[in-house]
Amino acid sequence: MFFGRNEELKSMNKRYNKNRFECVVIYGRRRVGKTSLIREFCKDKKAIYFSAIRGTAQDNLEELSKAIYMYKDSEHSIAPIYASFADAFDEITNIVKKEQVIFVIDEYPYLARANESVSSRLQHIIDHVWQDSNLYLILCGSSMSFMENQVLGYESPLYGRRTAQYKIQAMNYKEITVFNPQLNASEQALVYGITGGIPHYINKLDVDSDVDEAIIENIFDSSAYLFEEPENLLKQELREPAIYNSIIRAIAAGASRANEIATKVGLNSGACGKYLKVLLDLEIVRKETPITEKPGKKTIYVIEDNFFRFWYRFVSKNLSSVNSGRIKLIYDAVIKNYYPDYMGLVFEKMCKEYLLHYENNSDFVIKEIGQWWGTDKKSHKEIQIDIVGTPVEGKEYIIGSCKYKNEKIGIDELQLLQNYAEVFGLGEKYHYYIFSKGGFTEALIEKAEAGEVKLVSLNDMYL
Fold this sequence. Notes:
By secondary structure, the chain is an alpha/beta fold.
């Protein structure tokens, strides 16, 4: 069943209904749902769907020939192979003369690497033939650096030919509730904390009524799809998966600065930087710098992909228990007790998504949102502010705290935020937010009623 992506579908259909040439570029990390989106868009329309493969140019020409032939004559399985890509594209030209057709090239980077001239060939036929047709061309790819540089980039032969582009992102914490509407807020948050809003992972987690049971059966089981997902993804995408595995493991264990990671892995800083760049492009890792500051000495690396973070935090450390069949005992006695700590960073991300997408504050428009950390010159201690929202203009800022604990948060947390705001020191006015899983004390609620702070519970975030 297909969920979400309503805005993308609406936009794509609007373009389709104009009945003119379109060159739509769709890209995003693996498993995020690009192919599902395209199939949903095409399901009631005439479409030639070609998925490129990691093979030779001839291999891909054969697959393209099959896709065209299936469109023309789906009753016969043996397809004639076109002599060249030029001939195959000419056949598509002949088809589109008769009717509006969607032509999808999925995993376009595979095709472009197998046949280096294909981008130039497409550029030529777009400019001289397809531009005046009603062909709806879709180029889709999971290699984001390739799609951004070799398809959308200025140096690409295809530069300027696209009519629209969609970077497909993971779904946010609230959007994924459609997959498992029977779950309560805490359970929904945990599913998000594990899957990161990746539809493929949510489907493979396959929650029925018991989230813990689904986790044990579909992650902590050596026969389960998700058990080998990180390793398989690294092997599929990278030439030296063992080194990348070591880098991710180092970050998961607490190394956050480039030199710390390099030392832990046993690489020089230059080589480690190249590997980190690849992980950044894959959106497995992200760089973070205190908001309002430029990247520099304070820049740290964190695991961006929730599923990788979960796997390296819990599964990787308990492989012997999985293989010995003792994981159920270990899970109940140990692993699940660490979920509140693990969910701390996840909850911070959820709170940022709440402020960006769901908070109705007409008096304050957020330009960007992130963390901030620095030194309190009075106490000489390092402080960290979970959330800082910067303004589009002016000097009003959001200062926020996120607590994923079962106990109620009291007035001391507001006082701490006020102190942190003084250390931050850039604002003339601050809007204080406190997010809490466990609720708030009466004294803090009184402060909120007086307008001194905005309180948001986990349940509030799902309303």
